[in-house]
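Predict structure. Chain length: 271.
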Amino acid sequence: MEKLPKIALPIVVIAIIIIVVLSKSAVTIGSGEAGVLYKTFGGGVVTDEPPLEEGFHIVAPWNKVFVYEVRQQEKLEKMNVLSSNGLDIKLEASVWFQPKYNQLGKLHQEKSEQYIDRVLLPAIRSAARSVVGRYTPEQLYSSKRDAIQQEIFEETQKIVDDQYIQLNEVLVRDVTLPPTIKDAIERKLKQEQESLEYEFRLVTAQKEAEKVIIEAQGKADANRILSASLTDKILQDKGIEATVKLSESPNSKVIVIGSGDSGMPIILGNQ
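Prediction complete.
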């Protein structure tokens, strides 16, 4: 077997070194991610330049790249909070967020990759406790859910807005009250509903009664006006008119046998 030329060994060593260097220098940023560059000999975290975008990048092997997810993320948080009267309430909230893209370097430098646990979650807990403490259990259970959700969002946003975090939405998914309080509220709501239904029936019955009275009054007024307008002469003329029409009917056989007290003919018989 022939010996390798003396120059071959250094070439192999150099090639291995190049491969190692390239492997350490090549950085791939995935979809929905961005990279923060850390220069070991150049001032540390780069904060005055945009973060590394998606795709393939070559960096010096002595530098580092910290990869962050920059698309919207969701974090579900369960916590115990106190209502305005000191009752323990279990609250489940979902927060939608993402790091501010152009301030990713600042976020890494000041908050690190643990920014969710160090900043976001403490902020949502603090805001939830502050907001829920303004309401009674009954308000939390029924009418104020949307208002509480919006207030928690606004309170959290005030805290994280200057912490390089973009808050998109806070959703209150569940509010759990102590069983005894929940049962008492449900009984009260049921009683209020029954009371409203009873009042509705009373109002409906009253309106129906008023309608009947108005109709009866109208008929009475019409009869009084009609009675006042009728005279003996008019009644006699109407009687004669009706008698003539009856006598002209082909199904009637008319027999006149005198007259009544009013002078009207008396008609008997039919077919």
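Summary: The chain has a mean pLDDT of 78.
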